[in-house]
Amino acid sequence: MRIIIEKDYQDIGKTANTFMRELLINNPNATLGLATGSSPVGLYKEMIADNKAGITTFKNIKTVNLDEYVGLPEGHDQTYRYFMNDNLFNHIDIDKNNTRVPNGMAENLENACKEYTDYVAKNIPDIQILGIGSNGHIAFNEPGTPFDAHTHIVTLKEGTRQDNARFFSSIDEVPTHAITMGIADIMQAKMIILVANGIGKSKAIYDMAKGPVTTDCPASILQSHPNVVVIVDESAGYLLK
Ligand code: F6R
Q1: To 10 degrees, what angle do helices 9-26 and 41-52 make?
Q2: Torsion 110-217-36-189 (CA) sign
């Protein structure tokens, strides 16, 4: 695991983008694994700027996203599909038919999970982008999730629903379930770039990089992946010094 400590959020995005740019230039048919949340937005801004400057093209790029809420209607502004369109896909020359986000409105969610697992196995990301939760979660794999899990449905913890209630008009509107890639799916990626900023992530970053490999900190499994780059700001990385 290579750890890069940057000055601030903007530099995290710029540094993460150097790896992304190299891949996009060398492999215009690459598959990207993407995440939502605030951590990767700076990287997405850099990717948009490169695309607008003609340095990269996404015409033949495929993407797979980590997760999605269950039960939010198509077009809802809190779906992760909406987030990806709004923060990246609407601003680059990608064909949206080549972008996948788990289907949280599928009639048969078990089948949707199986299909997603199969799709990822056939389209293994060249780079997987990850954020990390303050409890060490990756995607919606909360502490306790087995490392061999594939795409599955999770019941959202009450705390997570309360944290997210600010994005909805009331807590009752916050979904109770989500669909997420499992850790076994994520670990297939050829390269993983995890980005994190802020003091609230410092313990999770320490446990991930220096703690025991345990499902108590789902991200600790990344210690056993051969090609991981962790890019953090000084606050998120301060326990590593
Ligand atoms: C998002 C995801 C989550 C976030 C994590 C950090 O697709 O899977 O695991 O990466 O919750 O979120 P932020 O970046 O908002 O702090």
Answers
A1: 50
A2: negative
CA dist 240 to 3, 45, 149, 235, Å? 9, 28, 29, 10
| Residue having the nearest C-alpha atom to atom 1 of ligand 1 | 36
Q: Are 99 and 63 spatial neighbours (Cβ–Cβ below 8 Å)?
A: yes
Task: Please give the number of the atom of ligand 1 that sits closest to the Cα of 141.
Answer: 9
CATH number at residue 171: 3.40.50.1360
Q: Which residue of the set 46, 50, 67, 68 is catalytic? A: 67
Q: How many CA atoms lie within 13 A of 142 on its CB side?
A: 11
Active-site residue identified among 137, 150, 197, 207 = 137
- Please confirm, yes or no, whether 135 is among the known catalytic residues: yes
Q: What is the pLDDT of residues 193-212, one digit of tens each?
A: 999 999 999 999 999 999 99
For residue 146, the CA-to-ligand 1 centroid distance in Å is 19
Expressed as residue numbers, the domain containing 137 is 2-240
Spacing, Cα 110 to ligand 1 middle (Å)? 23
- What digits encode the pLDDT tens for the residues 111-152? 999 999 999 999 999 999 999 999 999 999 999 999 999 999
Residue closest to 19 by CA, chosen among 184, 130, 102: 130
- Is the pTM value of this prediction over 0.90? yes
**Catalytic residue from among 85, 98, 123, 135:** 135
- State how many domains the chain has: 1
